[in-house]
Amino acid sequence: MCMTCGCGIGQTLIGGHALARQRKPGEEMRYRAHEEGAVRAPPHDHTLPHSPAHEAIDFGAGPAGTHAPGMSQSRMVKIERDILSKNNDYADQNRSYFSEHGIFALNLVSSPGSGKTTLLVKTITALNGTQSLAVIEGDQQTDNDAARIRAAGAPALQINTGKGCHLDAHMVGQAMQRLALNDDSLLLIENVGNLVCPAGFDLGEAHKVVIFSVTEGEDKPLKYPDMFRAADLMLLSKCDLLPHLDFDADLAVANARRVNPGIRVIRVSASSGEGLSEWQEWIKAGCNTAVAAKQRTLRERVPGNIPAN
Amino acid sequence: MHEMSIAESVLQIIEDTARAEGCARVKAVWLEIGQLAGVEKESLRFCFDVVTRDSVAEDARLEIIETAGQGWCMECSRNVAVSARYEPCPICGSFQIEVTGGDEMRVKELEVE
Predict the structure, then answer these.
(1) What is the ipTM of this complex?
(2) What are the pLDDT digits (tens) for B51-107?
(3) CB contact, 8 Å: B41 with chain A?
(4) Rounded Cα–Cα distance for residues A266 and A287 (Å)
(5) What mean pLDDT, rounded, does chain A reach?
(6) How many other β-carbons are positioned within 10 Å of the β-carbon of residue A126?
(7) Contact assessment for residue A99 and residue A297, using Cβ atoms and an 8 Å cutoff
(8) CA A187, CA A99: separation in Å to the nearest integer?
(9) In this complex, is the C-beta atom of B28 within 8 Å of any C-beta atom belonging to chain A?
């Protein structure tokens, strides 16, 4: 679980600067306890020792049914709110910014070491200035990946998630402001190398793209189904290594389609260049769609204009 | 997956609601978590305990209602039960299943005073 993998936002940095957030560094375990205006629990005695393990066992051990309305001064409040609603609100803001500015945003996800950054560098070189683009890099620590992207000639901003194991829509929104994205551009967001947590966090992107290298196991889509389910495109990377491996590429694709029947697959290799043109075509088609959608919206906004189909 | 972030989001919803309702204490919280939501329940309980410390929901009871996974089998053209994303249709064995339910995560209700 994330206590082990370190999930949390206590040490997030964007381009080396602290993320604007409600909690101070070093306070990860005391959530907004001293924040002004926060609703506080009334003072009361702590009869149980505050050992997490102890409380975890005791939680929910109380007699069932004591919550019935009318039994005490307590009452029930129906809320029915999505738990990720806050992240989804930020993601919606990002998404509407993208659509207003004709930006095609991709969220690139994979396990660590699948070759995401190498593939990005190759993609940037191959696009060779024909497409305005920017990159947001997510890693727990270091600015290494953003430096590699900048060396390839594209603007890049590093988000260091500290203990966090995924990017969320709020971090990406702040990074977007610092990057000052061009209209009609491509935004590539390289998520933290992790096949679990990033699946649940919408960043406002048009598509999640999962990168799955042939040096991994064919059954990875079955082991991490949520991620392969959430992605619209799978790049099977490092395909130049296939002759040297026992990896069954067809089985890997079949496994991905077991969890996501509609997933599109492109076999690529950053070393040999295999599949990169198909990947670029896919990107360009997405950029064209984003630009066309923006122009359609703008036309509809002009008073007296008849919306074009 | 990301149970700490989820627990934190749950606390934010609780605090927003407590502020809006003007209540001093939250005694119990009901969450609806789908079988396919990818949430480890015991881990979420642990994280909920940690994040609610010194908050309006300190020592609140956490009740998790698990909803079953559901999917639409494209081969059978009918709704089928899905217990995991990689499992075949229990009727025809096909993997062409679109998940239609059981992946939600919601705060359903609170007991407040």
Answers:
(1) 0.78
(2) 999 999 999 999 999 999 999 999 999 999 998 888 899 999 998 888 899 989 999
(3) no
(4) 18
(5) 82
(6) 16
(7) yes
(8) 12
(9) yes
